[in-house]
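Long-time lurker, finally posting.

We've been working with histidine kinase (Algoriphagus oliviformis) and I want a structural starting point before designing mutants. I don't trust myself to interpret raw outputs, so I'm hoping someone here can both generate the structure tokens and explain anything notable. Sequence follows.
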Amino acid sequence: MEYAPNPSDFPFLAKGGEMGKLILQNDWSKTSLGPIESWEISLRSTLGVILSSPFPMFLFWGEELLCFYNDAYRPSLGNNGKHPAIGKKGKEVWADIWDFIGPLIEQVMNSAEPVSFQDQLVAFYRNGRTEDIYWTFCYSAAYDDSGRVNGVVVTCTETTDTVLTKRKLEESERRLRSMIHQAPVSIAIFQGPQFITEIANNRSLQLWGRTAEEVLHRPIFEAMPELLSQEIQGILDQVYQTGEIFSASEFPVELRRQGKLETTYVNFSFEPLFNSSGEIDRTMAVGIDVTDQVVARQKISESEALFRAMADNIPNLAWMANADGWIYWYNKKWYEYTGKTPEEMEGWGWQSVHDPEVLDTVLARWKHSLEQGEIFEMTFPIKGKDGNFRQFLTRVMPVYDEKGAISQWFGSNTDIQEQKDFRDELERQVNERTAELLLLNDSLKKSEERFHHIVAEVQDYAIFYLNRDGIVENWNAGAEKIKYYKAHEIVGRSFSSFYTAEDQVRGLPQQLLATAASQGRSTQEGWRVKKDGSLFWASVVITAVHNNQGEVIGFSKVTHDLSDKKEAADALEAKKTELEEKNAELQRMNKELQSFAYISSHDLQEPLRKIQTFASRILEKEQANLSDKGRELFARMQRSAEQMQALINDLLAYSRTNTAEHVYQKVSLASILERIKQDLREELDEKQGEIVLKDFVEVNVIHFQFQQMFYNLISNSIKFSRPDTPLRITISAERIPGTAVPVKHLPQDRHYWHIQLSDNGIGFEQEYKDRIFELFQRLHGKSEYKGTGIGLSIVKKIAENHGGSIGASGQLGQGATFDIYLPVERV
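Top reply, 14 upvotes:
Generated this for you. Predicted structure of histidine kinase:
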């Protein structure tokens, strides 16, 4: 008859819940305890307390340490784990962690002293897997009716979530502090109304001229007493008391550095920090030292007064005109060269020194610039006082007033007669060499076509698998075709059978396997033996095959019959020597072109450098003798010279994209953008600009060119941003196959980085998507947007230098998008 105890007979189980029912249903007669009716009073009392407790509790009882636990403990056992364990032996239930809890139980039963742990890691099996679980628990003695320790009561609480949460909070705080210390700006956090310095990053310490030991954990006004006599304390008190953010630009602060007070200009803000109760308990200070910018601007203002005197002594011909083109001033160099008087040159009198054959063209171009507000640039002859004409590069820049309207023009004429003569001669030589290179290129193309044809004919591969000892385990049809062996004739034999007797003696097969095992792969070309004893020239690639533990378990071997290719290669060897000679000639010519570009750019910049030198000297010595109008004219002339130098620098940058050494390296797109953000910080702040990088990738590029590309693109977005709209620049990057690149001339047999830069600026009409990349091409007048018209041309050249491409799309008033495609690997 089945065992069925009456629940009413055992009141200690009345409030035992689910675990009480399991105890009642268990057949205890089959255990060392015997039927429930025979249990000791002490056991019943202990179980009554455990089962009715709302806290997780567990009991080990008797010599076999039989297991009992309450409903509150049940969830800790999880699902698909140890439950139900009631009535089972403790060592069997907890076998996976018995080496930890067994000695604890034994210690308590022997000493009757409790043992406790706080947040102890005890991993055991539950929920179908072994989990890392943290516990706070206490092991205490349980006594039988005779007063002897006969069990252990475990009171426990699982603290896994608490421990993990605490770790996350600690990690979050560590990351926050790390971010503050690595920030590119000064950041400090002050605690309480005494403004005790809790955190100060390196930029803060550099700005303050203090060490961490001098300021940390001290009130900031105690560590830096020079601030007490300034406005800083009152501002901090107001922020702490009102909770209102305070910010200022170019704020002068007296700081004691190296024993003396220095005036420092700072862009900074004080912001309140709130605790979990919504109360202010800290104040954060963020600042940027702009002393250099303020001092530089002050120096620029001082130098502008000297410009007019400097321009009168520059070696170039120079002049200034009203907005309508009426020339009212020439420098001394003009009169010295032309031999004319001021009365003869006034207004439009300059026409008398121009070549009549080109005068109409010059007038038309000059009137066009006046009407459109565009830079005038042209090369034409000017007659000297000796009656002879020399070629001059003439450039006229508009000068704008405060409202952005053209108020004057500044022109300069640079004598380039010698450069023109040299360029004409060089152009003649280049034309001759070009004709020779075209013939060479045609010959090279035909040779490449013959080579690719030979390669296309080599289609058969022997592919088979070797075990670790080099024994053939399978054999494909290609192997049979190349080596003549049937599968049953070679499977089970060593692959060394295919090598010549000489290669076998020197151990070449074993060397190839050893290299593949240690390095992952080995390659070799040489003679191999077919079944009939004939030889063929083969390319062999042996690749190690690894198991999940990284152990070599075999090798894959691919053999390619290159007999035909070897014959073709021998035939091409002679042709290769000829091509190398032609290539050396081409490199020599390229060096000549690079030298010419450098010499020309140097000669163009040298007069500008002299302008700046003479201007500085005159303004230093003659400032008191200049009128306000004179100083203003010098300032405008100086800006025009700077614009001309910007054009020359852009031309140099464009030239260097062809001539610079192409050294590729892996760089982070994020680090490139971070550097550009720092360089353009003021411009971005002025436009309330934000640069968002969606994808963090590393690209294999020419570092300085790649940085120049994004500098030009971001500068372009800033320049053409909408006046009343915060600028947003979004950059994304993804790796795509060549077949997905919408550029026809790029090879499709490789992968590319597709990097996209989009902005919300003024945009452009789609019909101009190609024109914007051409040299000196602009969609807007110089009076609207400054620039040389070369920046995007440089971007295009850099993309092409990398074997890639760039395209643009836009919508007027909505923004522009630039799509860049660069090969993932160096081409």
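Before you design anything, note these points.
The first strand starts at residue 57 and ends at 61.
Residues 447 and 453 are 10 Å apart (CA to CA).
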